[in-house]
Amino acid sequence: MFRKIRMLIGIVVLFILVACAEGIASTSSEHHLIISHFLPGSHPIQTDVFQAIGNEMKEKSNGAISYDLYPANALGDAGSQYDMAVTGEVDIALSVHGYSPGRFPLVSILELPFFAESAAHGSEIMEHLYDEFPSIQNEHNDTIPLFLFTADPAQLVTKAEPIKSPEDVKGLRIRSPSPLANDILEVLGAVPVSMPMGDVYESMERGVIDGAMIPLEALYNYNLYEVANYITIGNFSTTPFFAVMNQDKYERLSESEKTIVQQATGLETAIKSGSVFDEDGKKGRQLAEDNGAQVYEVMGNNLAEWKEALDPIFDAWVNEMEKDGLPGGEIYQRALELKEELR
Asked: How far apart are CA 263 and CA 271, in angstroms?
């Protein structure tokens, strides 16, 4: 009798152990990715890019890779996103390089005036520079970069004062997206004001700032067309973005799963990410014009005037990089070449 009971218990224990082993085996190949960014949940970077990436990885891995998206700083502010990917608080993070001052000095090459002519153009330049220069790769060496891209070029948007020449910028309080943008505005005689994009609308509406250096997509995605009465198109800077993955999470993927992640990201996704900014930039400009905004485009002799005013920025950037032992001159020259090659 007792022998039968012990045998029955043994069988039950065996079934439990087998079930546990099967459970471990089935979950060991499953990877649930926490994806975090600072943009609104309605932004096309979430709806058109990240959801497409997540769905592609899920489909190609037969469900072994799944994901959840956390937009709008739900897990941490914009300046913390990179560190959250480093530490593993999130698996994939997207934000702006400039929100981590001093951490990505060479990436700021795209923030110099007149480089990118569109977000897709800037994104392709950025990806090529990353591929060609180990020094830029080293700036991201504590994560796995999935793709780097840019927003559409930043323009000068004001509420009360039109800007047609560099002289018109003097004394204006202008929202700045990064330290290098601060330098650009200071060279023009403006007072740069650092603030998150989400604060720009109220600050312009209340007169806390006179204007903002922003991509035109922000007119659409942040409703800034409602407070933008004057827009000066000059491609004064471009904001670089990163999408990076935690190293440990990446290394836990099988080789085939790593290939799936690589195929879902990379250059094509960078260009696509830029393109959604370009499309929203067109929408933003149209909304602003429909709302009565006056648009002035820098061109011809007037462009020469702007270039002369901003010329010190280029030499200062190269000199600062070289002083720190970084190949600033080489990267600057290559960026100029890529600007023409990738048009």
From this structure: 14
DSSP state of 167: G
Half-sphere exposure of 202 (CA within 13 A, CB side): 4
Q: Which residue has the tokens 């089935």?
A: 26
| pTM exceeds 0.90 for this model | no
Q: Which tens digits make up the pLDDT trace of 254-281?
A: 999 999 999 999 999 999 999 999 999 9
| pLDDT tens digits along 82-136 | 999 999 999 999 999 988 989 999 999 999 999 999 999 999 999 999 999 999 9
Strand, coil or helix: 298: coil
Give the integer Cα–Cα distance in Å for 10 and 19: 14
Sheet holding 31-37, edge to edge: 65-70, 31-37, 92-96, 240-245, 144-150
Asked if residues 223 and 204 have their Cβ atoms less than 8 Å apart, the reply is: no
Which amino acid type is present at position 130?
Y
- How far is 150 from 159, CA to CA, in rounded Å? 25
User: What percent of the chain is helix, strand and coil (3-state, nearest 5)?
Assistant: 55, 20, 25
CA distances from 250 to 36, 56, 92, 138 (A): 16, 17, 10, 18
Residue 117 has a CB neighbour count (10 Å cut-off) of: 16
Name the pairing type of β-strands 230-237 and 173-176.
unpaired
State how far the Cα of 94 lies from the Cα of 78, in Å rounded to an integer. 8
Environment class of residue 135 by beta-carbon count within 10 Å: exposed (0-12), middle (13-18) or buried (19+)? Answer: middle
CB 222, CB 216: distance < 8 Å = no
Distance CA 193, CA 176 (A): 6
Quote the tokens at residue 143. Answer: 């994560």
Q: What is the DSSP string of 196-252?
A: -GGGHHHHHHHTSSSEEEEETHHHHHT-GGGT--EEEEEEEE--EEEEEE-HHHHHT
How many residues are recorded in the chain?
343
**What one-character-per-residue DSSP string does 81-132 give?**
HHHHHHHTSSSEEEEEGGGSTTT-TGGGGGGSTTS-SSHHHHHHHHHHHHHH
